[in-house]
Sodium transport system ATP-binding protein
Amino acid sequence: MIEIKRVSREFKEKKHTIQAVKEVTCTIPKGEIVGLLGENGAGKTTLLRMMSTVLEPSSGEIFINGVNIHKEPMKVKQTIGVLFGGETGLYDRLTARENLEYFAAFYGMSKHETKVRIEELAKRFGMRDFLDRRVGGFSKGMRQKVAIARTILHNPDVIFFDEPTTGLDITAANMFRELVRQLKKEGKTIVFSSHIMEEVEQLCQSIIMIHKGQMIYQGSNEQLYREEESRDLNYIFMSRIVRGESA
Protein backbone atom coordinates (compact mmCIF):
# COMPACT_ATOMS: atom_id res chain seq x y z
CA MET A 1 0.00 0.00 0.00
CA ILE A 2 1.10 3.57 -0.76
CA GLU A 3 0.10 6.40 1.56
CA ILE A 4 0.67 10.01 0.50
CA LYS A 5 0.00 12.56 3.23
CA ARG A 6 -0.23 16.26 2.37
CA VAL A 7 2.79 16.11 0.09
CA SER A 8 4.08 19.27 -1.59
CA ARG A 9 7.20 20.01 -3.61
CA GLU A 10 8.66 23.42 -4.43
CA PHE A 11 11.49 24.31 -6.80
CA LYS A 12 13.52 27.51 -6.69
CA GLU A 13 14.01 29.12 -10.11
CA LYS A 14 16.01 32.36 -10.01
CA LYS A 15 13.86 34.70 -7.90
CA HIS A 16 10.72 32.63 -8.22
CA THR A 17 9.35 29.62 -6.36
CA ILE A 18 7.50 27.03 -8.43
CA GLN A 19 4.94 24.90 -6.62
CA ALA A 20 5.16 21.66 -8.61
CA VAL A 21 2.97 19.58 -6.27
CA LYS A 22 0.50 21.02 -3.77
CA GLU A 23 -0.86 19.24 -0.70
CA VAL A 24 -1.54 15.87 -2.37
CA THR A 25 -3.13 13.27 -0.11
CA CYS A 26 -4.24 9.82 -1.27
CA THR A 27 -3.99 6.10 -0.55
CA ILE A 28 -3.27 3.42 -3.15
CA PRO A 29 -4.25 -0.08 -1.99
CA LYS A 30 -1.95 -3.06 -2.44
CA GLY A 31 -2.38 -4.80 -5.78
CA GLU A 32 -4.07 -1.89 -7.53
CA ILE A 33 -3.12 -0.46 -10.91
CA VAL A 34 -3.46 3.31 -10.91
CA GLY A 35 -3.28 5.65 -13.90
CA LEU A 36 -1.72 9.04 -13.23
CA LEU A 37 -3.15 11.66 -15.59
CA GLY A 38 -2.29 15.30 -16.11
CA GLU A 39 -1.14 17.67 -18.83
CA ASN A 40 2.58 18.34 -19.32
CA GLY A 41 3.93 20.22 -16.32
CA ALA A 42 1.03 19.22 -14.07
CA GLY A 43 3.32 17.54 -11.53
CA LYS A 44 2.96 13.85 -12.47
CA THR A 45 6.66 13.10 -12.82
CA THR A 46 7.51 15.12 -9.69
CA LEU A 47 4.98 13.08 -7.70
CA LEU A 48 6.35 9.81 -9.11
CA ARG A 49 9.91 10.89 -8.30
CA MET A 50 8.93 11.60 -4.71
CA MET A 51 7.18 8.24 -4.38
CA SER A 52 10.28 6.50 -5.71
CA THR A 53 12.70 8.28 -3.27
CA VAL A 54 14.42 10.28 -6.05
CA LEU A 55 13.10 13.59 -4.68
CA GLU A 56 12.26 14.59 -1.13
CA PRO A 57 8.98 16.38 -0.51
CA SER A 58 9.18 19.99 0.62
CA SER A 59 6.50 18.98 3.12
CA GLY A 60 4.36 15.96 3.89
CA GLU A 61 5.16 12.24 4.10
CA ILE A 62 5.01 9.16 1.88
CA PHE A 63 4.83 5.57 3.13
CA ILE A 64 5.23 2.38 1.12
CA ASN A 65 4.04 -0.73 2.93
CA GLY A 66 4.23 1.24 6.17
CA VAL A 67 7.82 2.45 5.66
CA ASN A 68 8.56 6.18 5.50
CA ILE A 69 10.39 6.37 2.19
CA HIS A 70 12.60 9.34 3.08
CA LYS A 71 13.59 8.08 6.51
CA GLU A 72 14.45 4.58 5.24
CA PRO A 73 15.06 5.02 1.48
CA MET A 74 17.39 2.03 1.05
CA LYS A 75 14.83 -0.29 2.63
CA VAL A 76 12.20 1.02 0.23
CA LYS A 77 14.44 0.81 -2.86
CA GLN A 78 14.70 -2.96 -2.43
CA THR A 79 10.94 -3.28 -2.85
CA ILE A 80 10.21 -0.85 -5.70
CA GLY A 81 10.87 -0.75 -9.43
CA VAL A 82 11.12 2.55 -11.33
CA LEU A 83 11.17 3.62 -14.98
CA PHE A 84 11.08 7.30 -15.93
CA GLY A 85 10.21 8.19 -19.52
CA GLY A 86 13.34 8.44 -21.66
CA GLU A 87 15.68 7.94 -18.68
CA THR A 88 16.52 4.27 -19.13
CA GLY A 89 19.40 4.34 -16.63
CA LEU A 90 21.42 1.95 -18.81
CA TYR A 91 25.17 1.97 -19.44
CA ASP A 92 26.00 2.25 -23.15
CA ARG A 93 29.36 0.45 -22.91
CA LEU A 94 27.79 -2.63 -21.35
CA THR A 95 25.70 -5.26 -23.10
CA ALA A 96 22.05 -5.66 -22.21
CA ARG A 97 22.94 -8.76 -20.17
CA GLU A 98 25.77 -6.96 -18.35
CA ASN A 99 23.46 -4.07 -17.52
CA LEU A 100 20.91 -6.44 -16.01
CA GLU A 101 23.63 -8.33 -14.11
CA TYR A 102 24.90 -5.03 -12.69
CA PHE A 103 21.50 -4.04 -11.36
CA ALA A 104 20.84 -7.56 -10.07
CA ALA A 105 24.00 -7.29 -7.96
CA PHE A 106 22.80 -3.93 -6.64
CA TYR A 107 19.59 -5.64 -5.50
CA GLY A 108 21.52 -8.46 -3.84
CA MET A 109 20.38 -11.22 -6.20
CA SER A 110 22.44 -14.41 -6.40
CA LYS A 111 24.24 -15.32 -9.64
CA HIS A 112 21.93 -18.27 -10.24
CA GLU A 113 18.80 -16.22 -9.57
CA THR A 114 20.13 -13.49 -11.86
CA LYS A 115 20.84 -15.88 -14.73
CA VAL A 116 17.41 -17.50 -14.53
CA ARG A 117 15.62 -14.16 -14.25
CA ILE A 118 17.50 -12.60 -17.20
CA GLU A 119 16.67 -15.58 -19.43
CA GLU A 120 13.04 -15.37 -18.39
CA LEU A 121 12.81 -11.66 -19.16
CA ALA A 122 14.77 -11.96 -22.42
CA LYS A 123 12.24 -14.52 -23.63
CA ARG A 124 9.26 -12.47 -22.41
CA PHE A 125 10.46 -9.25 -24.09
CA GLY A 126 11.99 -10.79 -27.22
CA MET A 127 15.51 -9.64 -26.30
CA ARG A 128 17.50 -12.79 -27.01
CA ASP A 129 18.82 -11.53 -30.35
CA PHE A 130 20.43 -8.47 -28.76
CA LEU A 131 20.99 -9.57 -25.17
CA ASP A 132 24.78 -9.75 -25.65
CA ARG A 133 25.17 -6.59 -27.72
CA ARG A 134 26.28 -3.23 -26.30
CA VAL A 135 23.38 -0.97 -25.42
CA GLY A 136 25.04 2.06 -27.05
CA GLY A 137 23.95 0.87 -30.51
CA PHE A 138 20.35 0.08 -29.57
CA SER A 139 17.25 1.67 -31.02
CA LYS A 140 14.95 3.54 -28.64
CA GLY A 141 12.54 0.60 -28.56
CA MET A 142 15.31 -1.91 -27.76
CA ARG A 143 16.59 0.29 -24.94
CA GLN A 144 13.07 0.61 -23.55
CA LYS A 145 12.66 -3.17 -23.46
CA VAL A 146 15.89 -3.57 -21.49
CA ALA A 147 14.87 -0.72 -19.17
CA ILE A 148 11.51 -2.35 -18.44
CA ALA A 149 13.29 -5.65 -17.76
CA ARG A 150 15.64 -3.80 -15.37
CA THR A 151 12.65 -2.28 -13.59
CA ILE A 152 11.09 -5.65 -12.70
CA LEU A 153 14.30 -7.67 -12.51
CA HIS A 154 14.25 -8.00 -8.70
CA ASN A 155 10.52 -8.81 -8.57
CA PRO A 156 9.49 -5.61 -6.74
CA ASP A 157 6.19 -5.28 -4.86
CA VAL A 158 5.56 -1.71 -6.07
CA ILE A 159 6.31 -0.43 -9.57
CA PHE A 160 6.34 3.12 -10.95
CA PHE A 161 6.22 3.70 -14.72
CA ASP A 162 6.41 7.16 -16.31
CA GLU A 163 5.24 6.96 -19.95
CA PRO A 164 6.35 3.30 -20.19
CA THR A 165 5.32 2.64 -23.82
CA THR A 166 7.20 5.67 -25.21
CA GLY A 167 9.31 4.52 -28.16
CA LEU A 168 7.79 1.04 -28.35
CA ASP A 169 6.23 -0.28 -31.54
CA ILE A 170 2.68 -1.67 -31.47
CA THR A 171 3.78 -5.24 -30.78
CA ALA A 172 6.11 -4.24 -27.93
CA ALA A 173 3.50 -1.88 -26.45
CA ASN A 174 0.92 -4.66 -26.44
CA MET A 175 3.48 -6.97 -24.85
CA PHE A 176 4.03 -4.39 -22.11
CA ARG A 177 0.29 -4.14 -21.46
CA GLU A 178 0.06 -7.89 -21.14
CA LEU A 179 2.97 -7.76 -18.69
CA VAL A 180 1.06 -5.24 -16.55
CA ARG A 181 -1.95 -7.57 -16.50
CA GLN A 182 0.30 -10.42 -15.39
CA LEU A 183 1.90 -8.28 -12.68
CA LYS A 184 -1.57 -7.45 -11.41
CA LYS A 185 -2.33 -11.18 -11.12
CA GLU A 186 0.85 -11.46 -9.04
CA GLY A 187 -0.48 -8.81 -6.63
CA LYS A 188 1.88 -6.00 -7.63
CA THR A 189 0.96 -2.37 -6.98
CA ILE A 190 1.54 -0.28 -10.10
CA VAL A 191 1.33 3.47 -10.67
CA PHE A 192 1.96 4.72 -14.18
CA SER A 193 1.50 7.91 -16.13
CA SER A 194 0.38 7.81 -19.72
CA HIS A 195 -1.02 10.11 -22.38
CA ILE A 196 -2.67 7.12 -24.06
CA MET A 197 -6.19 7.09 -22.67
CA GLU A 198 -7.00 3.67 -24.13
CA GLU A 199 -4.04 2.28 -22.20
CA VAL A 200 -5.37 3.71 -18.94
CA GLU A 201 -8.89 2.47 -19.68
CA GLN A 202 -7.65 -1.06 -20.42
CA LEU A 203 -5.21 -1.48 -17.54
CA CYS A 204 -6.23 0.72 -14.62
CA GLN A 205 -8.74 0.13 -11.86
CA SER A 206 -8.50 3.70 -10.64
CA ILE A 207 -7.23 7.09 -11.70
CA ILE A 208 -5.45 10.04 -10.12
CA MET A 209 -5.77 13.33 -12.01
CA ILE A 210 -3.41 16.22 -11.34
CA HIS A 211 -3.83 19.79 -12.56
CA LYS A 212 -1.31 22.53 -11.77
CA GLY A 213 0.16 20.40 -8.99
CA GLN A 214 -3.15 19.70 -7.28
CA MET A 215 -5.08 16.46 -7.25
CA ILE A 216 -8.47 17.04 -8.86
CA TYR A 217 -9.68 13.43 -8.83
CA GLN A 218 -8.86 10.13 -7.19
CA GLY A 219 -11.12 7.13 -7.44
CA SER A 220 -12.22 4.22 -9.59
CA ASN A 221 -12.76 4.49 -13.32
CA GLU A 222 -16.39 3.45 -12.87
CA GLN A 223 -17.00 6.13 -10.23
CA LEU A 224 -15.57 8.75 -12.60
CA TYR A 225 -17.75 7.54 -15.48
CA ARG A 226 -20.84 7.76 -13.26
CA GLU A 227 -19.98 11.25 -12.05
CA GLU A 228 -19.43 12.53 -15.58
CA GLU A 229 -22.19 10.46 -17.21
CA SER A 230 -19.74 9.47 -19.91
CA ARG A 231 -17.26 6.69 -20.65
CA ASP A 232 -15.08 8.83 -22.91
CA LEU A 233 -11.99 9.22 -20.73
CA ASN A 234 -10.32 11.71 -23.06
CA TYR A 235 -13.39 13.97 -22.94
CA ILE A 236 -13.68 13.57 -19.16
CA PHE A 237 -10.01 14.42 -18.66
CA MET A 238 -10.19 17.57 -20.77
CA SER A 239 -13.43 18.61 -19.09
CA ARG A 240 -11.96 18.22 -15.59
CA ILE A 241 -8.84 20.14 -16.57
CA VAL A 242 -10.91 23.02 -17.93
CA ARG A 243 -13.10 23.09 -14.83
CA GLY A 244 -10.10 22.65 -12.52
CA GLU A 245 -12.21 20.81 -9.98
CA SER A 246 -10.88 19.89 -6.57
CA ALA A 247 -10.72 16.22 -5.58
User: Anything to note?
Assistant: The first strand starts at residue 2 and ends at 13.
